[in-house]
Amino acid sequence: MEEKLISRLESAVARLEALSVSAFRDRGVADFGGADVTVDPSIVAFDDLLGQFFGRVSAAAEKIGGQVLEVTKIVQEAFRVQKELLVKAKQTQKPDLAELAEFLKPLNEVIMKANAMTEGRRSDFFNHLKSAADSLTALAWIAYTGKDCGMSMPIAHVEESWQMAEFYNNKILVEYKSKDPNHVEWAKAMKELYLPGLRDYVKSNYPLGPTWGVSGKAPASAPSKAPAPPPPPPASLFSAESSQPSSSKPKEGMAAVFQEINTSKSVTAGLRKVTADMKTKNRADRTGVVGTSEKEGRTSSPSFSKAGPPKLELQMGRKWVVENQIGRKNLVIDDCDAKQSVYVFGCKDSVLQIQGKVNNITVDKCTKMGVVFTDVVAACEIVNCSGVEVQCQGSSPTVSVDNTSGCLLYLSKDSLGASITTAKSSEINVLIPGAESNGDWVEHALPQQFINSFKDGHFETTPVSHSGG
């Protein structure tokens, strides 16, 4: 009898422990409360996703170290937070818009932490930081609440988010292809973490968004004070209190204006009449010709940028910095070597000549800027610019144009094999030498519109062709 009683008590205790979910936050990702949640196939599959794909990313980051390891740990933290949210969603009723923002706050804070690493002075590992930070937006698929929520469906959102990060991920592959295999491994593993990793996980478990609890508690919202009483309604532009007849009191505001217009008296009685000699076309002092003195007064001389003083200097023997140059047509860098890089920032209406071979050239946030260089070892990058012209007189293996409106690329015969990458850019034209030695330059426009067609189970992308092309 006692043995049966003890057996029943032990069974009851085991059932109570299995249903307990109060301490899952304190125990972290490895021990979520509620056996029915931790053994959920979708949660187990998330652990399998990290075990299969994230290990390679972490191992490569450990070998590289520095900022790459730091941003990789932030990516790991973001996936950990996502798992916590998936578990919490199964125990929570579907939130409204305000509650959803509070629900996603932990994930948003981690993403902001990654974005903060890409700001400020450009790091040597900028492409790694940018690739990792942009990729984290893929985790926002958990915010999908329906077709009217304003975002793509979860699977498409993951794919679109990775396309943003892939631009910088490809730069890593090109830059370190023959330098350091650890960086190449990190970039490849990062892509596989999202495609096919996260994409296939979402496709198998949450193709229509996260699963919310039916009878769970409502999501906690941020504490707020009691709302203040609404202010009294503003006075009407037309008649005042409606309790009085409109005909029994004088009209105010716009009603008074309309009443005056509708009256029989002339409302234009006080206006002056414009005679023929007062018209601009008949005035002798307004010929329409701009005088020389007036034109010279409008011509602006070379000035300095409000962002800071102009710079053209070599920093620490490795990096040429050209900043805030405005109206300077004779900028020259002639004492350079293949180990140095050139960074051009915030220049306007200027021309820079780089006479010699350098490792890398970056043109950032420049307007109407011209850059002429001989040879570059790695790549020439044009970022956040408008109306720039870049001419390569020697060789350049890679030219990338990102977020730029209006760019003319002049390629020499030695650089015709260059790989040109464009993203979020328009009006990109490439000019190459003619067939004859003294022939004219031949201009080619790079496509900025594409057609995506679904064929044989996948999308095929082709540029839009124009009859004048």
TrEMBL record:
<feature type="domain" description="C-CAP/cofactor C-like">
    <location>
        <begin position="309"/>
        <end position="446"/>
    </location>
</feature>
<dbReference type="Pfam" id="PF21938">
    <property type="entry name" value="CAP_N"/>
</dbReference>
<dbReference type="InterPro" id="IPR001837">
    <property type="entry name" value="Adenylate_cyclase-assoc_CAP"/>
</dbReference>
<feature type="region of interest" description="Disordered">
    <location>
        <begin position="279"/>
        <end position="310"/>
    </location>
</feature>
<dbReference type="Pfam" id="PF01213">
    <property type="entry name" value="CAP_N-CM"/>
</dbReference>
<dbReference type="InterPro" id="IPR036222">
    <property type="entry name" value="CAP_N_sf"/>
</dbReference>
<dbReference type="InterPro" id="IPR013992">
    <property type="entry name" value="Adenylate_cyclase-assoc_CAP_N"/>
</dbReference>
<dbReference type="InterPro" id="IPR017901">
    <property type="entry name" value="C-CAP_CF_C-like"/>
</dbReference>
<dbReference type="InterPro" id="IPR036223">
    <property type="entry name" value="CAP_C_sf"/>
</dbReference>
<dbReference type="InterPro" id="IPR006599">
    <property type="entry name" value="CARP_motif"/>
</dbReference>
<protein>
    <recommendedName>
        <fullName>Adenylyl cyclase-associated protein</fullName>
    </recommendedName>
</protein>
<dbReference type="InterPro" id="IPR018106">
    <property type="entry name" value="CAP_CS_N"/>
</dbReference>
<feature type="region of interest" description="Disordered">
    <location>
        <begin position="215"/>
        <end position="253"/>
    </location>
</feature>
<comment type="similarity">
    <text>Belongs to the CAP family.</text>
</comment>
<dbReference type="InterPro" id="IPR013912">
    <property type="entry name" value="Adenylate_cyclase-assoc_CAP_C"/>
</dbReference>
<dbReference type="InterPro" id="IPR016098">
    <property type="entry name" value="CAP/MinC_C"/>
</dbReference>
<feature type="compositionally biased region" description="Pro residues">
    <location>
        <begin position="226"/>
        <end position="235"/>
    </location>
</feature>
<feature type="compositionally biased region" description="Low complexity">
    <location>
        <begin position="236"/>
        <end position="248"/>
    </location>
</feature>
<dbReference type="InterPro" id="IPR053950">
    <property type="entry name" value="CAP_N"/>
</dbReference>
<dbReference type="Pfam" id="PF08603">
    <property type="entry name" value="CAP_C"/>
</dbReference>
